[in-house]
Design brief:
Organism: Lacisediminihabitans profunda
Strand content: under 5%
Keywords: Membrane, Transmembrane, Transmembrane helix
Helix content: over 70%
Distance between the termini: 28 Å
GO cellular component, one term: plasma membrane
Protein name: Bile acid:sodium symporter
Largest sheet: none
InterPro entries: Na+/solute_symporter_sf, Put_Na-Bile_cotransptr
Mean pLDDT: 86
Order of helices and strands: HHHHHHHHHHHHHHH
């Protein structure tokens, strides 16, 4: 689920701007570069990162409307389209990006691109953009929620399938994912009945906890990567390579979801939901999973493509949502 403030200004004037959360992450990366955690402080940060991931997924469990996702399965064709886009089409395109190594992407940055392609959809931004574009908001809520529910298990499995040793899924990794991600998420779901109203009343506080948790994980990841020599491996050309790869990946999925949903006979409102839910990738889910599955000095490089993709999808989503809204107004609100 995307955490940053959405760059929106009403249905007619959706605009894009720098995601404040991404700006905060940039500052954390600068801090990790200048003052990386070493020795005892590194151990302290590592423990803090572990706790942050547990807390983050517990809150995700409290927040995610599982009942709505399950009840929404009646529209199974739409949900199937979103899941296929997220967990089949995206990974296949990510795997095809291997052809760009090494002339566009370095091997480790390719791992990052492949990793982001296995992640589930966002919830917050998918729903917001679908709403602005006059799409099927109810279907977007269900589809994005279902994607996140399944993604907690599917994403690590897809990483292991497509990346082999680079994304190993050993017994140790499985137990770490279970303890840090699945167990707290399930606990949050079980307590959702009582805690969801509390979380809703104190959304500003839980948002700070969400963002703070991710920032702790990012600082821990980049501290280890800085000590491991990340800036010797990350040149301006490699950064541009990641930007190009992210843009092309997003553009291809947008075209496939747009044309595919139209060819399959979905209504205009359902097409919009499929386009936005099927093209988004969750930074909130991705960073913690990467921290568990790619622990080590290369973690910073692994999550770097995802951090850039996060901002790109927000900008593109705002532009598309505004365009869909204008077309709907010109058509008189019809489907």
């Amino acid at each position: 689920m995307t955490l940053g403030a959405l760059p929106l200004r009403g249905p007619r004037g959706a605009i894009s701007k720098l995601d404040p959360f991404l700006a905060a992450m940039a500052l954390v990366i600068v801090l990790a570069t200048l003052l990386p955690a070493r020795g005892a402080s590194a151990s302290f940060v590592s423990v803090g990162s572990y706790i942050a991931i547990v807390l983050l997924f517990f809150l995700n469990g409290v927040r995610l409307p599982t009942r709505e996702a399950i009840e929404g399965l009646k529209n199974w064709k739409l949900h199937s389209a979103v899941l296929i886009a997220s967990f089949v089409i995206f990974p296949i395109l990510g795997f095809a990006a291997r052809l760009t190594v090494p002339w566009l992407l370095t091997p480790q940055l390719y791992v990052g691109v492949m990793f982001l392609s296995t992640l589930p959809s966002t919830v917050q931004s998918s729903i917001a953009f679908t709403s602005i574009a006059k799409g099927n908001v109810g279907a977007a809520i269900c589809a994005a929620s279902l994607s996140n529910l399944l993604g907690i298990v599917l994403s690590p499995l897809l990483v292991a399938l497509f990346l082999g040793r680079s994304g190993s899924f050993s017994l140790g990794t499985l137990s770490s994912i279970a303890l840090q991600i699945l167990v707290p998420f399930v606990a949050g779901q079980l307590l959702r009945r009582w805690l969801a109203p509390v979380e809703s009343r104190h959304r500003s506080i839980t948002k700070v906890v969400d963002r703070g948790s991710i920032l702790v994980v990012v600082y821990s990841a980049f501290s280890a990567s800085v000590i491991g020599g990340i800036w010797k491996q990350l040149s301006i050309w490699s950064v541009l390579g990641v930007v190009v790869a992210d843009i092309v990946l997003l553009a291809l999925v947008l075209v496939i979801t747009a044309r595919g949903s139209k060819l399959l006979g979905f209504s205009r409102m359902d097409q919009i939901a499929i386009i936005f839910c099927g093209s988004k990738k969750s930074l909130t889910t991705g960073v913690p999973i990467a921290a568990v599955q790619f622990a080590g000095p290369t973690l910073g490089l692994t999550i770097f493509p995802l951090m850039l993709f996060h901002q790109i999808q927000i900008i593109v989503g705002a532009v598309l949502a505004s365009r869909f809204a204008r077309l709907d107004n010109l058509a008189g609100g019809g489907e």
